[in-house]
Amino acid sequence: MAVTDAAIDKIKGMIVSGELAPGARLPKEADLAERLGLSRNSLREAVRALALINVLDVRQGDGTYVTSLEPRLLLDALTFVVDFHRDDTVLEFFQVRRILEPAATAMAATSMGPDDIEELRAILDALPEDPSVEQLVANDLEFHQRIARGSGNTVLCSLIESLSGPTTRARIWRGLTQEGATAKTREQHTAIYEAIATHQPDIARAWATVHIAGVEEWLRRAL
pTM of this prediction? Predict the structure, then answer.
C-alpha cells in the first residue's frame, strides 16, 4: 500500500471509529503525524485527498476540520465523476434512474405533507402553455428533484441528483425531436403529482416507471 493511501486509511479509521466526529478539528499536523507514525508530507497528501472528496475541510489559518459528512456533501464527488460520462453510456444512466426514481416517488407519496405537495403543484403550474425546450427541461429537472427531496431519504436524493447531469442533454434532444414531447411530459407529471397528492405510493411508482421508461425507450430507438 502506498504511503499516502496508508495515511488516508488511518485518518479514515479515526473518523469511522468516532474518535473524530463530524465538525471536529484535527490535531496539529506535527502531533497527528507523530501519533499516526507518518511523515508530515504523507499526512499533507492524505489531508489534501480527503479534502477533495469533502471529508475534510482545510481552513487557512484556522486548521483542518471533519466536514458534516452529510450524504449530499460526500456524493458531490460522484456528481463530478459522472460528468465525465460518454454519450454511449447515457442509456445506462437512464436505466439506473428507472430503478431509483420510482422508489423515491413511492416514498414521496407516503412522506410528503400538504406544503410539500403544494410546492410540487406550483412547479407543474410554472410550466408555460407553450414552453421552449429549455423551459421544459428545467421544469422537468426541478419536478424530479423536488420529488427526490420529498422521499425523505437524503442518500437516495443525492444519488438521483447526481444522475441528472448526464441525462439532461438527452432530455433536450428529445424535446427538440420527438413530436408531442411537451404534452406527454405534462400529462405524465400531472399523473405522478396526483398519485403523490392522494398518497397512493403504488400508483406513483407505476407512473414514475412509465415516465422514465418512455424517455429511455425513445433514446434507445434514437441511438
Answer: 0.68
- The CA distance from 31 to 55, in Å, is 20
Sequence spans of domains, the chain: 3-69, 74-222
Nearest Cα to Cα of residue 100 among 115, 127, 78? 78
Of 171, 96, 98, the residue nearest 137 (C-alpha): 171
DSSP string covering 45-80: HHHHHHHHTTSEEEETTTEEEE----HHHHTHHHHH
Cα dihedral across residues 155, 161, 162, 167: positive or negative: positive
| Grid cell listed for 190 | 400531472
* Residue range 74-222, CATH number: 1.20.120.530
Which of 69, 68, 59, 4 has the alpha carbon at shortest distance from 36? 4
Question: Residue 17: how many CB atoms within 10 A of its CB?
Answer: 8
- Residue 216 — pLDDT band, cuts 50, 70, 90? confident
Place of cell 479534502: 51
Cβ count within 10 A of residue 22: 12
Q: Are 165 and 79 in contact (CB under 8 A)?
A: yes
Q: What is the fold, at CATH topology level, of the domain defined by 3-69?
A: Arc Repressor Mutant, subunit A (1.10.10)
Give the lowest-confidence range in 14-18, 119-123, 152-156, 163-167: 163-167
Burial label for 121, CB within 10 Å (0-12, 13-18, 19+), is middle
**Residue 63 and residue 25 in contact, taking contact as beta carbons nearer than 8 Å:** yes
Q: How many residues comprise the chain?
A: 223
3-state secondary structure of 1: coil
